[in-house]
Fold FAD binding domain-containing protein.
Amino acid sequence: MRPFAYVKPVDVEAAVHAATTEPGAKYLGGGTNLVDLMREGIERPDTVVDVTGLPLDTVEELPDGGLRVGALVRNSVLAADRRVRARYPVLSQALLAGASAQLRNMATVGGNLLQRTRCAYFYDPASACNKRQPGSGCDALGGFNRGHAILGASESCIATHPSDMCVALAALDAVVEVHGVHGPRRIPLTDFHRLPGHTPDIETELAPGDLVTAVELPPLTADSRYRKVRDRASYAFALVSVAAALRVQDGTVTEVRLALGGVAPKPWRAREAERILLGGPADEAAFRHAAEAELAAATVLPDNAFKAGLAVATITATLRELNEGEAR
């Protein structure tokens, strides 16, 4: 590991100042992703700004019935929070599906938002990767791409976003609070991450020095659920995952939210499927039709073509379970 300077600021303003004035600075929260990337030589910060001492580790009630989650809240704490389990089961389930207990005890909400892809070519310095080294190419396109994206990818990058939590947050219309050199601002979670286009190395809408301070969850009246399909039940990244919320009245869908993981370079909000479902019948045929319409835009490669059908089946099954729960 390369030598680096270490700074531990006392407040948010000092953290932003350090991150914008210290050379090659990176924020450090739980470190479950950054430290690994530093060990591999992928991230090479000259300065590490440790934000773990900042007062950003609480879950607070909002006047409208939502929750404000501090960026330093640990994943295990958030998953176990009674308010989250009762009001946002999709989020609790996603967090519990996301990693081992040891990692959840260390990982933070802010760090989870910013974790980088687990594409094997990104982690291999001998491979071409536009995300790691812009302009070098993408070896995944002609390589082993079974786990790679089928929606929202480009000729420059087909890596998937690894987070389970972010898929749930996308379905919940969460808002990310950010503090930068010009003060605080708010970014909808669905706009926070960027698709790769020709610049896959630019992964979020954050400006240099921006610090994620919290995530706001609006109130949710619909029942919700997270389903993750993976190669093994213990600590594996999603092949396909679905975060869904559904409300049905008299057999008609009155509220629906869908987001997909494991299929795109960012948490994928399934807007087309939502559009088709809203106001229509809540039955198996409608669920499958909406899922197929969402996946109609998929661009597949030989190794990952199975994901399109798997996504359709997973969306359909998740909505079916929610609908059956509504009927009971």
Q: What stands out?
A: The first strand starts at residue 5 and ends at 7.
